[in-house]
Automatic annotation (TrEMBL):
The gene is rpiA. It comes from Nereida ignava. Pathway: Carbohydrate degradation; pentose phosphate pathway; D-ribose 5-phosphate from D-ribulose 5-phosphate (non-oxidative stage): step 1/1. Substrate binds at T33, G34, S35, T36, D89, G90, A91, D92, K102, G103, G104, G105, K129. The lineage of its organism: Bacteria, Pseudomonadati, Pseudomonadota, Alphaproteobacteria, Rhodobacterales. One of its GO terms (molecular function) is ribose-5-phosphate isomerase activity. Belongs to the ribose 5-phosphate isomerase family. It catalyses: aldehydo-D-ribose 5-phosphate = D-ribulose 5-phosphate. InterPro entries: NagB/RpiA_transferase-like, Ribose5P_isomerase_typA_subgr, Ribose5P_isomerase_type_A. It is an enzyme of class 5 (isomerase). NCBIfam families: PRK00702.1, rpiA. Keywords: Isomerase. This is Ribose-5-phosphate isomerase A. Its EC number is 5.3.1.6. Homodimer. GO terms for cellular component: cytosol.
Amino acid sequence: MPAELSPIEKAKFVSAKRASDFVETGMRVGLGTGSTAAWMVRCLGERVKNDGLKIKGVPTSSRTAALAQSLGIEVVTLDEAKWLDLTIDGADEYDADLSLIKGGGGAHLQEKVVATASDRMIVIADAAKKVDTLGAFPLPLEVIPFGWQTTKTLVEETLVGMDVLGRTTALRMNGDAPFVTDEGNHILDLHLERIGNPRQLSLVMNQIPGVVENGLFIDICDVVVVGHGDGRVEVTDISSGTVEHDSVDLMEHENLFADLG
Ligand SMILES: O=C(CO)[C@H](O)[C@H](O)COP(=O)(O)O
């Protein structure tokens, strides 16, 4: 294990590796976005190369598409795949009900479409992503560029009636210019601190004209795979109510880390 891999990065790898075990030949798989999901794509790429794994991957961003293709994973569009067996993706926060905040990487619109079109969604995370109440991580809203400042004002006015603590909003920037998503939209980050009723907030935010999609995932995720830097991993399945404790041998996968260097 190279020294430069931090404990948090090892934890992300461990969750991604364990979750990739759910993928079998013939599956249509949603490929998430972010640093944890990138580990999962690398793990699948290794199995495609070394073990003859055959899957069709539906990426949730242009970044993930480029990574998957570079690793020899067959990439298809969601419309070509139509329905997916499984989506594996990261999250910014998850709670005990497996409600999520996603979109830290600005890809939550495609991520939500893909996860919702899947029989199962597995979230991969390190333990720091677990929260009692969602909201410490800013909630992303994807908004169309047209009239975004008016949309921002409408969002702020609407938040006054909602069960949240903070109400500041900020346009996400990429250097000096607004961040632009793969769909050509912008992101408003809502600094809410605490979201008392995520289901209600999600419904209300999506009704504001100009808002395309929010980063709350409610009743979408079925399983969370939490990795630790020492190789321990927990698999929690919300539908069966089971928690499985397992481990991943980090030394066995040194080649994957070496490839990164
Ligand atoms: O929702 C996402 C991207 O839109 C990511 O899954 C989320 O931001 C977690 O990222 P990371 O695995 O890098 O912590």
